Amino acid sequence: MQWKPGRDKPYREVRSGESCFQKTGEWHRIHRIIDRENDWYFEHIEDEHGTVVRHCEEPLTQHRGHGSAKKKLPQVADRGDQLSTGIDPTAPDTEEGP
C-alpha cells in the first residue's frame, strides 16, 4: 500500500497471492490493483489449473456492486419487545392522576 500524508486511504493498493474460494473450496491466484490516484481498478483471478476465472480492468469510479460498494438491504426495526409485552413505547402516557 502506498499512502500520502494526511489521507485516510492509501492511494494505491496491490494485492497478490492465493486465496481459497469459499463456495467451492478451490484455491485461486489473485492479482488486484486499486489505484485511487489514477482512478483505476484491475483484478485477475485464475484457478489452480491456470484457467482465468475473472479479469476486470475499468475506472475505479465505475467499479460498483462489489465488496463494500454493494447495495445494502433496508434495515428492519426489531419490534420483538413491543410485540411480546403489548406495550407501545411511542404511545402517549394516558394515566390519570388523583
Could you estimate the helical fraction of the residues in percent? Answer: under 10%
H/I helix tally? 1
Distance between the termini: 71 Å
Strand content: 25-35%
Radius of gyration: 24 Å
- The helix/strand class is mainly beta
- Extended strand count: 4
Spans where pLDDT lies below 50 across 5 or more residues: 81-85
Strand order of the largest sheet: 1-2-3-4
This entry's quaternary arrangement is single chain
Largest sheet: 4 strands, antiparallel
Mean pLDDT, to the nearest integer, reads 77
Run of helices and strands: EEEEH
Shape: globular
Task: Describe the protein.
- The protein is mainly beta and 98 residues long.
- Helices cover 6% and strands 34% of the residues.
- It has one helix and four strands; from the N terminus they run ββββα.
- The chain has a four-stranded antiparallel sheet, with no helix packed on it.
- Strand 3 and strand 4 form a beta hairpin.
- It is globular and about 40 Å long.
Keywords:
single chain, 98 residues, mainly beta, 4-stranded antiparallel sheet, 1 helix
Describe what is shown at a glance.
By secondary structure, the chain is mainly beta.
Describe the secondary-structure layout.
Elements: E1 12-20, E2 27-35, E3 40-47, E4 52-58, H1 80-85
Antiparallel strand pairs: 1-2, 2-3, 3-4
